[in-house]
Structure formats: structure tokens, C-alpha cells
S1 family peptidase
Amino acid sequence: MPKMKRTVVGAVVVALTVLSAAPAQSASGGGKGNETVRAIAAQDNTAAPDWAAEDKVPASSASRAALAMIQERIAGYVASHGTAHTFGSYLDPATDRIVLDTDAPANVVAMLTDLSGTESALVQAAGKVQVRPRTTTDAFNRRDDSPPFWGGAGIQSGGALCSTGYAVANGSGTRFTVTAGHCFSTGSTVTTESGAYTVGSVSNRHLPTVTGEPVDMEAIGGQSYAGRIYTGGVYSSTSIPVVAAGTAYVGYSDYCHSGRTTGEQCGHTATSINGQVCTQTGCKSPVIVYTGGVIQQGGDSGGTFYAKNASGAWIRGHVIASNSTTGYVEPWTVVAPTLGVSIVTG
């Protein structure tokens, strides 16, 4: 399956016993959109809201036949050569074209989609295959995130690696994810670390060397973003919901940060909320200063800084700089008025 929320929809003809009574993982920070599977009593399927949709998207018989042949070839290729390459294939009803998502090399794609020697209509349908170079997987993690995007995930553009911070919304309700302003230039297209998904484009970049302001933040928008933060290790798929956002408190000794390089690390003590840090991109202040625990590292920039309890994550900002003993954080109390946003909760 593609890396997106996975919802199991059951269509059960006869009444069965309940298959699972376990709570949905997503509610407790597990799978991204996994739902509990339950049997249901027999229903008249013609009453379903999507029942009549099939007749509205007819496909040509040639396209269907060509797709079936290509899919059979793909299955045979995978059976013979293994799973080094991934393939996703289907018929786009809007264009009547076969779509092939794959990371296989061009010569393999050409071999699998060449229907020469068959009927002319099949050759024509195969000649219109839309090949999209991408990797498909049935898993996700913070280094291979999927929509809706969470905080603490790996992102990249132009060879630079950073992390997502947290989802926000402007006055119109449009959602963005926040990261560090020193990560990417305005207008950059940002993808997941794996490159499989576009996370969005950069806007509202604020940085001393760019805007002259003593802050380090930017917004990434154009896709879907949720109020959840990755927890656990660097390949974790667990998360917690965002509860709220506000100021940090000096002396609190169990703040956490979440990013693609060090994962989730807690046990940080806030030593100041009025600090200053000056790096290659200028001086930023006021910033949160913390010590203790595993300090953030390169690639964690933009990652979430928060306190957490049984309710979830309480956002305090996003990480922007560090040395071997000390971390520096752009405070939420500066981000909110600068970008004119509110926090998105989970």
C-alpha cells in the first residue's frame, strides 16, 4: 500500500462475532490511521453512499485489458526477481490511462509495459502509461512520513535535512507545518526524507540573514498536516497528540525534543527562556535554553520541543541550534505572533 492513512473497511454479508476489541492504535499513538476491525450485521449495499459511483467512471475495455496484462507481468517479475523494486499500478478513471508508480529502472519498466505483438488497442493503451518514479511501501516512520504529516519527521530539500516541528493554522484555517528558518529557502519544495511524498513549499521564512529579525522559523504548506508528534526512536511510527502550546518554564526538568536524527529524547531542563544564540545565520533571541539528556544533533533542526503527560504533547517551540551540552529552541510564544498562527491539536 502507499504510505498513507490505512482504514480497514469491512463489508460482511453475514453476522459474525467481533474479531477484535482492541482500541485503535492511532488513539494511543500507534499506527497511522489503523482502525479496529469489527464484523457487522448484513446490510443492503445499495444503501451505501458510494454504491452508485462505479457507473460514473467507466474505463475502456482496452485499458482494462492492458492493465491486467501489465499487472500479470509485474507479478511475474517480482516473483522471479524479488522485491528490490516496488510497483503500484491502476487505471485512472479521469484519463483512462494506466498509472505506474515504481522505483524500477527504465529498462525494466519498458520491458513490463511493452505490449507489442498484441492487439493494436492494447498497444495504444500501453503506450499511454503514466510512469511516476516513486517508492511504495506498506509502512511508515518518522524518516518516511506520509500524509497527514506529523511533527518530528525527517524532511529534505536540495540535499539539506531537517525535521518538522508542529502543525499550525492561520486565521483562515489553512494548515502548515513549522520548521527552522535556516533549513530551506523561500519557495523550496520540501519532501519527506525518503523522497516519496511532497511535504509542501516554504513560505514565511524568518531569519536574521534573510529578514533581519532575531528569529529562526518558516512555514511549509500546501499539503495536509495533523496535530501529532512522533515519539520513540529514529524509525518509530508511534506518536502522541498535541494538546496545546505555550511558554516554557525555567527549572522544569523533563522537556523532550523529537527529530529525525536523535528521535525522541527527554530529560531536558530549561535553564532560560530569555537566552540568545548567535550562529552562521545570525543572532536569535529570546530563545529557550536547555541542558541535560541527549542534546539535538544536525538534522533535528526544526524538530518539536515539548513537555508531555498522559494527555499528549504540550508544544513549547522547535529546536534551532546546539553544542555538545546545550540546546537552543525557538519559542512558541515568538512563533505564534510572528507567523500569525494557532496550534493544531490532535
In short: Residues 85 and 105 are 9 Å apart (CA to CA). The chain is about 15% helix and 35% strand.
